[in-house]
Specification:
Elements lengths: L22 H4 L1 E2 L4 E2 L6 E4 L5 E6 L5 E6 L4 E3 L4 E7 L7 E7 L2 E2 L3 E3 L5 H13 L8 H4 L13 E3 L13 E2 L13 E2 H17 L1 H4 L15 H15 L11 E3 L17 E2 L4 H18 L4 H20 L23 H15 L25 H11 L2 H19 L16 H19 L2 H14 L24 H5 L51 H25 L1
Parallel strand pairs: 2-10, 11-15
Antiparallel strand pairs: 1-3, 3-7, 4-5, 4-8, 6-7, 8-9, 8-10, 11-12, 13-14, 14-15
Helix pairs in contact: 2-15, 4-6, 4-7, 4-15, 7-8, 7-9, 8-9, 9-10, 10-11, 11-12, 12-13, 12-15, 13-15
The structure holds ligand G3I and ligand 9MR.
Length: about 575
């Protein structure tokens, strides 16, 4: 089934032309896609008005009027806002919020408002596949020849062994391009693939039949699992069949220019094995074996055996840390000096998948405090698995206490936003999406609506309820990134960037600041974003940010579909 990718409200222009009103000047900030009819519906405004109207986008008719709250300062935005709440308005349709002469970007209320966004968030992965041509039938304007077959890649000096010396040729095809660059990294692939597997696991009822319009759409495997397998297949090639250790990355020696991958003649290399990569691989493969078991038992076995062999390697090599690039190499590092969390994660996934609890004796399970997952800090992931798969009371309590602390932060903020300065760093939108995933897991464990509502608040932030009034997903909303740091989007000759991509987002550290001109004047953390090609620290895309975003939007979409069914 082909679904439209752009939720356009073409008739809006009949009411009020948007031309000439730049985003921040509209003064009304909200989710530009819209809301499920029964969801909380919140916007914020920096306009000085006690009331607001919800108007029909086409006719301008006022359909609902409400009161704004008094203004409160939002430190992350460096500005004061009033809150607008129109939750009680549930009629399906296309609307704008109006205050005086100003109006918001248009949005919809409907009970399948996120359907096309949910599909696009997964098609991002298809469109960023390595090693294969994307035919027009599946990629439309983004069709392209195969880039980086990776059937001939070279063992780098740092990975050389007696049997596989420097320059030894390996084959390591498939996988997704990591981000704006074309390289492939195991550490980042681990958390990304796990996140998508977990999404499938939780929302199987809704996702089993989802049509992603990919070449495998007509086989017997659900499309979401076909797409995830594209990366699992690559990860499997990164394991040394002789000893079970896993190589850290496959990349060129340096980041290449902004060209299409099929035109690049740079050699690709395989870099040294590491404990972090091998543990992330073990955890992901062990989890995959559970998810694929019902669909392809042989594949599930292959994944589980790979996980066990990786674990055996790690017991012999517990501290092979990848901390910096070898000389002459400048590509991503995903460096990690503390692998205790990766140990906890792999041990738990292996224990659950094999039923052998002795894996759990190898690492501590319980921490005093947990953090929202990100690629270097995965200690919450085994708690998710123990809570969801084993109904482990102590894991459930760990998940809920972190969730509650974020709910408290959100409640204390005029924009209902739990993001703090620490979260507003490189990949902040990925942090937001991971908070949303945590909320949805807490909701799954308790059915308490406050978690679902907080997940909606986080999605609202990503889709426009932020101080820049930007929908951070390419191709969606009225104002979204046009110049992401994404080589494919820049080099393909198509004006519009690839659709469905979540950009990194606001990042107060602005590591690219020296060469970027587009950052706003304000240094408030949530303002530090620039929609320009050179802004790799705020405007790049990456699989590990898109995966929790896919989780968030597909999760809310699935819960919404479920609730609509019970309502009927
Ligand atoms: O956690 C510290 C914080 O304590 C400190 O206050 C702050 C000050 O700058 O830094 C924080 O760490 C930052 C970290 O991201 C947060 O996750 C580092 O400075 C920052 O350098 C690091 O950036 C990473 C970036 O690579 C550079 O290494 C990003 O996490 C990571 O997502 C990104 O990944 C790149 C790959 O290497 C290559 N492919 C693209 C991909 C996405 O940009
Ligand atoms: O394009 C690279 C991007 O994928 C990385 O995330 C980023 C940080 O490692 O680096 C980008 O490459 C830039 C390099 O680091 C500095 N010179 C400019 C490069 C392209 O903008």
């Amino acid at each position: 089934m082909k679904r439209k990718l752009l939720p356009l409200i073409s008739s809006l222009a009949l009411f009020v032309p948007l031309t000439g009103i730049s985003a921040a000047e509209t003064g009304i900030f909200l989710n530009q896609i819209g809301f499920p009819d029964m969801a909380p519906k919140t916007a914020i405004t920096n306009l000085d008005s006690d009331t607001f109207d919800v108007c029909d986008a086409e006719s301008g008719a006022v359909l609902f009027t409400g009161k704004t709250t008094p203004p409160l300062y939002w430190d992350m935005a460096g500005e004061s806002f009033r809150r607008i709440d129109f939750t009680d308005f549930t009629e399906n349709g296309s609307y704008v919020i109006r205050i005086g002469d100003e109006h918001s970007y248009p949005f919809e209320i409907s009970n399948d408002v996120y359907e096309s966004l949910a599909v696009a968030s997964m098609r991002y992965f298809y469109l960023n596949r390595a090693s294969v041509a994307l035919p027009e039938a599946f990629a439309g304007a983004y069709s392209r020849p195969a880039g980086y077959p990776d059937t001939e890649v070279y063992i780098h000096k740092s990975a050389a062994s007696e049997t596989k010396p420097e320059g030894f040729v390996m084959s390591s095809p498939k996988g997704w391009f990591d981000a704006g660059d074309y390289n492939k990294y195991i550490v980042n692939s681990g958390i990304t693939t796990y996140t998508l597997l977990c999404m499938y696991d939780l929302y199987k009822g809704h996702l089993e039949g989802m049509d992603l319009h990919i070449p495998e759409s007509n086989n017997s495997m659900p499309d979401v699992l076909d797409e995830i397998r594209w990366n699992l297949d690559w990860m499997l090639t990164m394991q040394d069949s002789e000893d079970g250790g896993v190589y850290s990355k496959l990349s060129t020696l340096n980041f290449i220019g902004f060209v299409m991958p099929e035109t690049s003649t740079e050699k690709r290399h395989i870099f040294s094995k590491s404990t972090a990569a091998t543990l992330d691989f073990a955890a992901t493969m062990a989890y995959a074996s559970r998810v694929y078991r019902d669909y392809d038992a042989a594949y599930a076995d292959e994944c589980l055996n790979a996980a066990k062999r990786a674990w055996d390697w790690v017991l012999l090599h517990p501290d092979v840390l990848f901390l910096k690039n070898p000389e002459g190499v400048n590509t991503g590092m995903y460096q990690d000096a503390d692998v205790s969390d990766e140990f906890e994660w792999a041990a738990m996934e292996l224990a659950i998948s094999t039923g052998d609890s002795s894996y759990r004796n190898h690492s501590s399970e319980k921490r005093d405090a947990y953090t929202v997952p990100c690629w270097p800090m995965v200690e919450l992931l085994p708690r998710y698995s123990a809570a969801l798969d084993l109904q482990d009371a102590s894991a459930i309590s760990d998940v809920l206490s972190l969730a509650d602390s974020l709910v408290a932060k959100r409640n204390a903020n005029i924009a209902l936003n739990p993001m703090d300065r620490k979260a507003l760093e490189w990949g902040s939108n990925g942090n937001a999406a991971n908070m949303g995933m945590l909320m949805l897991i807490a909701y799954q464990l308790t059915e308490k609506t406050v978690y679902l509502e907080t997940a909606q608040d986080i999605l609202d932030y990503i889709l426009g309820r932020n101080p820049l009034n930007i929908c951070y997903v390419t191709g969606f909303g009225e104002k979204s990134p046009l110049y992401p740091h994404h080589r494919l989007s820049h080099a393909d000759g198509v004006d519009a960037p690839y659709p469905g991509m979540l950009v990194g987002g606001a990042n107060w550290a602005k590591q690219d600041g020296a060469q970027c001109k587009g950052y706003p004047e304000s240094d408030a953390p949530a303002m530090c974003y620039s929609d320009e090609l050179g802004s790799y620290a705020s405007n790049e895309v990456a699989i590990n940010w898109s995966a929790p975003f896919a989780f968030l939007v597909n999760g809310i979409n699935a819960v919404d579909a479920e609730q609509s069914k019970t309502k009927e």
